[in-house]
Every structure is written in structure tokens, then in C-alpha cells.
Design brief:
alpha/beta; 227 residues; 28% helix; five-stranded parallel sheet; two-stranded antiparallel ribbon
Length: 227
């Protein structure tokens, strides 16, 4: 299992390894009877997750209901308070359709990366296909050296005078558990603190709960519960 953990050296190696994988296969073109499409024009698409092609589609059973923790409507606030739509004036907030297009158009060309901001244990349990894991404490606890390692893994270049050049840095679509989860906010704050361009960051506000609510494909990586 490759993941971005809290150990600095292992974290850098892990994200480099993930970003070197082929990122996305093109949307399938074969005709198939799909009752529940993602959008009118996108019945499904395929992505690469840990070197394995995963078909991203919606559950075709129109009677399906969620039965896991993401059916909960109420959690104590604080800390699980509803967050505003905008995390930052220059960070674009997206929903499911925009996330699908991000997978299809940004990840496919190597220009974008989906980042799961949750802790490693949650990422390893279940995540959005193609997502890599940068747990929010990584950036919260980072110094400039660690931030540089992470940013370089994300495509930033260091000029001869030591300045950071984000021209070719990847666009990032960041999510956590849902509108009541602050982990995306905290990761984004950490990225911005060290100068990652806000224009290259997308905040998927509905997060994993929104993704599951629409019956979209998830990657189950460990058959166990997170307490």
C-alpha cells in the first residue's frame, strides 16, 4: 500500500511513486445499457488507482440505500460543524460533476491530482478512485523543507536562485468526509501558507459523503471499520 504518511522521508517517496503511475485511462467508448449515468453525456469513465484500472460509475440498483456511517445526519458541533461553501476567495469550490470532469480532463493529462485529506486509516479503508493521500496534519506540521519536498512531488520546480516556480505544478482537487469535516480546510490552509497557488486548488466540499450519496464508485482498500 502506497500512502502519504506522517514520516517525512517515507511520505515524499510515496507521493513520488504515486504520481509516476499512469493516472487515467480514457472514458470507455463501448455501448452499454446504463440506467443510471453520471451525467447525460458521461455514463462512466475509468481511472487508474494504484496501478489498477477502476471503472467509475453510479450504482445501477435504483432501490439502493446507504447503510454505513455516511447515513448519519447529525454529529456534535463543534467539532463537526457545517462549513461554508468558500474555503478561500481564490480557491474554487466544486461538486460531483466538476470532480468527474477533473478526473476525466485534468488527471488524464497529468495536470491534476485528487487528494484525500483524511487520515491514513480512513484513506486506506475507502476512498475515491485515483486519489492519493496527504493527511491534513502533514501540512499543518510541515516546515519549509518538508513543504518543498511535497510541492516538488506535485510538480513545483526550484529555480537556481532558490525561488519556487509553480508554473507546472499540478492542479489539486481536495476532499475529506463531507460538509461537516474540516480536514480539507486544514490541508488547504497549510498548502496556501507555504505558497501553493490558490488558483490551482479545488475544494470538493461535499466530500466522501456526497460522492457515496450519489452511488459513485469507491475503492475499498481494507475490510475493517475505523473507530
Amino acid at each position: 500500500m502506497m500512502h502519504f504518511n506522517l514520516h517525512r522521508e517515507k511520505a515524499t517517496k510515496s507521493i513520488f511513486a504515486l504520481l509516476l503511475l499512469p493516472l487515467l485511462a480514457s472514458a470507455d467508448t463501448a455501448q452499454q445499457d446504463v440506467v443510471v449515468k453520471i451525467t447525460k453525456d458521461i455514463p462512466w469513465l475509468t481511472v487508474n488507482h494504484m496501478g489498477e484500472k477502476i471503472k467509475v460509475a453510479r450504482i445501477q440498483d435504483t432501490t439502493h440505500r446507504l447503510t454505513d456511517d455516511y447515513t448519519k445526519t447529525s454529529r456534535p458541533c463543534p467539532p463537526f460543524c457545517i462549513h461554508p461553501t468558500k474555503v478561500h476567495p481564490d480557491v474554487k469550490t466544486i461538486a460531483e460533476v466538476e470532480m468527474v470532469h477533473f478526473l476525466k480532463e485534468k488527471v488524464s493529462t497529468g495536470k491534476g491530482v485528487v487528494i484525500d485529506a483524511r487520515l491514513k486509516s480512513w484513506y486506506e479503508l475507502e476512498t475515491i478512485p485515483s486519489a492519493i493521500n496527504i493527511p491534513f496534519p502533514v501540512m499543518e506540521n510541515a516546515d519549509k523543507r518538508v513543504a518543498e519536498q511535497i510541492f516538488r512531488a506535485l510538480g513545483m520546480q526550484t529555480e537556481k536562485d532558490g525561488k519556487w516556480d509553480f508554473t507546472h505544478a499540478k492542479e489539486l482537487a481536495i476532499f475529506c468526509n463531507g460538509v461537516w469535516c474540516d480536514q480539507s480546510h486544514r490541508l488547504i490552509d497549510g498548502l496556501l501558507k507555504f505558497g501553493y497557488p490558490a488558483s490551482k486548488i479545488y475544494y470538493y466540499r461535499d466530500g466522501f459523503q456526497g460522492w457515496k450519496l450519489l452511488g459513485l464508485t469507491t475503492v475499498v482498500q481494507k475490510e475493517e471499520s475505523v473507530k
